[in-house]
Specification:
The chain is of the alpha/beta class. It is built from 9 helices and 6 strands. It has one domain: Creatininase (Rossmann fold, 3-Layer(aba) Sandwich). Helix 7 packs across helix 9.
Length: about 260
């Protein structure tokens, strides 16, 4: 080995030592499951054994917002929770039932059976338990009545069969109750979308000559033109204030 090669090798070893030292001093706190290497998942799980499962639907959200708004919203909320507490965030599951399609006939919507959602949810929960996570947090951004029931059925069955796992499965509207009303493609959901992925929103596509309606536009709630990223930030703050203590309590209880 030449002197130059020796010097390069020494520099490489020193660089690797620095990386190792930084990782030891600043261990990874959270991550997106699909982007993590096995050792990273194991390091996060050892520190904070929480898996976050964002759930949504592929559903009409009027002319101005993306079809995947519910999953995008749930994912943004789960990532915010993981940044506060730690853990891994699974990719959003875009499988919804009781969507606007059978209710109001809007297309660009994929409607699944209630049984499909329940079974898929149960399989995800079972697999996450098998992967060694002690707490599972499932946030559904789509909260049609059938969707909430389907997920609750899976969660209840899982909880009975896995009492050693802490589980909180809930619609994202639950921690916001009393602060922001439920809505569909309206001011609230659009504010979250403007916070998490603003480039996917185009409010100029809404009818200029009138207020939005459920029948004509698929908007349930206040006109989305009143939405803002700043309001999305306020909603997120309130969401975290209510959700973080509950998750920390689960973590404490199920990791004793």
């Amino acid at each position: 080995m030449t002197q130059k090669n020796t010097d390069n090798h020494i520099q490489f070893l020193l660089h690797q030592k620095t990386i190792w030292k930084n990782n030891m001093l600043n261990p990874i706190q959270w991550g997106r499951y699909e982007n993590l290497r096995p050792a990273q998942i194991e390091a996060i799980r050892a520190r904070t054994p929480i898996a976050y499962l964002p759930w949504g639907a592929l559903e009409w959200h009027s002319y101005h917002a993306p079809i995947g708004l519910d999953g995008i919203k749930a994912n943004g909320l789960c990532e915010a929770l993981a940044k506060e507490i730690g853990g891994v965030v699974l990719p959003p599951v875009f499988v919804g039932t009781d969507t606007i399609k059978p209710y109001k006939g809007f297309h660009h919507t994929i409607e699944h059976r209630v049984e499909t959602v329940t079974q898929l949810c149960l399989e995800f929960l079972t697999q996450l338990a098998d992967e060694g996570f002690k707490v599972i947090v499932l946030v559904t951004g789509h909260y049609g009545g059938g969707q909430v029931t389907a997920i609750a059925d899976a969660a209840n069955k899982f909880a009975r069969e896995n009492p050693q796992i802490g589980l909180w499965a809930f619609p994202d509207s639950e921690p916001l109750e009393g602060f922001f009303p439920k809505n569909h493609a309206a001011r609230g959901e659009t504010s979250f979308q403007l916070l998490f992925k603003p480039e996917l929103v185009d409010l100029t596509l809404l009818p200029a000559e009138r207020e939005t309606t459920l029948d004509d536009d698929g908007v349930w709630g206040e006109d989305p033109r009143h939405a803002s990223a700043a309001e999305g930030e306020k909603m997120l703050k309130f969401f975290l204030e209510n959700a973080v203590p509950k998750i920390n309590k689960l973590l404490q209880e199920y990791t004793r």
